[in-house]
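Aim 2, interim progress: modelling of the glutathione-bound target.
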Amino acid sequence: MIKFYYSGAPNPMKVALMLEETGLPYEPVPVDTRKGEQHKPEFLAINPNAKVPAIVDGDVTVFDSNAILLYLAEKTGKFLPANTPSLRGELLSWLMFVASGVGPFAGQSVHFRQYAPEKIPYALNRYAYEAQRHFGILDARLAKQKYVVDDTYTIVDMAVWGWARLVPNALGEQAWAKFPNLKRLVDEISARPAAARANELRIKHKFKTEFDDEAKRAMFKHLEVQVA
Ligand SMILES: N[C@@H](CCC(=O)N[C@@H](CS)C(=O)NCC(=O)O)C(=O)O
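Predicted structure of the complex, ligand included:
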């Protein structure tokens, strides 16, 4: 049985969606990052990067959400485009684009808007600009086709769903008006039964909600260390 180390944050939720979509049996293992559980030695042995999600599938350990999506897709043969070199190229490109661009820039935009102790105009604008640019690239793609890769619902759409649900957090409530095609995809996926079950998983465990000093120490270690 697959062990799924998760919290209710965007990256784990992509994997929860995929697990639910595939119907693979799995054991959810909550990691309460606001209590610092990601830094426990037993979790670091699974993911030295101290972040969720991660999975353990027998003697296979996989961390980083998009790596897990690809692993589960290849394990089950599901939610992949047709097996041609050209579509494989598209799949890898868009999957890495979400992993290295959409997620990090949207995440930093949320950070500087909602969590940074000071409102720094340069940082706010840089990350909002980049988040908007990345979401715009997805929106333009989705204006031309139903899903990000080919005409099939794949792990790339699940990866996009994880972050695009946070468009208002990254760019403000009015931002959806700029991305109608992306919104169409997010709404379609959110309406799927697997997405509802992923959301139930997020709510079922009572993760800590307070963003107090313990949470800051666990998640924003840079507050206590002067590097530069
Ligand atoms: N590249 C990683 C990033 C994982 C990540 O940033 N996870 C966040 C939740 S979305 C986390 O564990 N945060 C806790 C922390 O930073 O201490 C992935 O895609 O899985």
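The chain has a mean pLDDT of 97. Residues 85-115 form the longest helix (31 residues).
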